[in-house]
Amino acid sequence: MIPPEISVIIPVYNEEDGLPTLFARLYPALDQLDTPYEVVFINDGSSDRSAALLREQYERRPDVTRAILLAANAGQHMAIMAGFEHARGQIIVTLDADLQNPPEEIGKVIDKMREGHDYVGSIRRIRHDNLFRSSASKAMNYLREKITRIRITDQGNMLRAYSRTVVNAINSCKEVSTFIPALAYTFARNPAEIVVEHEERAAGASKYSLYSLIRLNFDLMTGFSLVPLQWFSMLGIVVSLGSAALFVLLIVRRLVVGPEAEGLFTLFALMFFLIGLALFGIGLLGEYVGRVYQQVRHRPRYLIEAILEGDQ
């Protein structure tokens, strides 16, 4: 059997309404590339009929279709990691199942990879997201770049291509919580980005809640930089110096003016500010300690229930 040049990895979580449309558009787009390929679907513990639809699609196109059925929901990035560990292509492309990235755009990232790049990201030409989601994404992109020095213009877009070398490097990592595009950027030697089209979700609703997005960005920032801890240390130094200066000022004022009863609520406000600052610092430290705790347990990142594939 000819090994595929291209592996397309698609995590699937409760996408039964949109999968038929995805199948109808994905395979013709890949057939037009005129190169050996495989499609690796990862069912991320879906509770709907997604797994059954993937099985039916495997039976229709067993020559180019593989499906990995996870026993439980592991999260989008861990599902992609499962795909990376089973992909056989020299160029590995990730794609969401919701059709917001048109499958017809896969050829663009492939062509860019063939120019000699080892990692190609994508930027949505016109985003079909609501104002809050777009604004929050831009703000987090800016903050992430300042903290991690990882330059990803559109971190929420999962249409990306990776070389076999970069994927092998990612597979060698044993992190239980990571952000794959950022991890790939740290290993890439010649990264690039291109502009691609973006469409509205074909069916269903986004699986990323506000909480999920916040958690994702915490993983991104604490997983790739110590800057948040360093910033907090600097803030602690500034607050300590400010508190010392205020203490000296209050002593001088007491000696000059005498005892005063005023200013009680100002001190309360200052106290609450410092308590909030301390709680924030404890939470930030907890993020790093929690990552260490998850890592040292050495629990599997995902559990595979079944793999649907032909003779390899």
From TrEMBL:
Ranges annotated as spanning the membrane: 231-252, 264-285
A Pfam match: Glycos_transf_2
Keywords: Cell membrane, Glycosyltransferase, Lipopolysaccharide biosynthesis, Membrane, Transferase, Transmembrane, Transmembrane helix
Record-level Gene Ontology MF annotations: undecaprenyl-phosphate 4-deoxy-4-formamido-L-arabinose transferase activity
UniProt EC number: 2.4.2.53
InterPro entries per UniProt: Glyco_trans_2-like, Glycosyltransferase_2, Nucleotide-diphossugar_trans
Residues covered by the Glycosyltransferase 2-like domain: 7-167
GO CC entries: plasma membrane
GO annotation, biological process: lipopolysaccharide biosynthetic process
Statement: the UniProt record of this protein carries the keyword Transmembrane helix: yes
SUPFAM superfamilies linked: Nucleotide-diphospho-sugar transferases
Protein name from the UniProt record: Undecaprenyl-phosphate 4-deoxy-4-formamido-L-arabinose transferase
Name of the coding gene: arnC_2
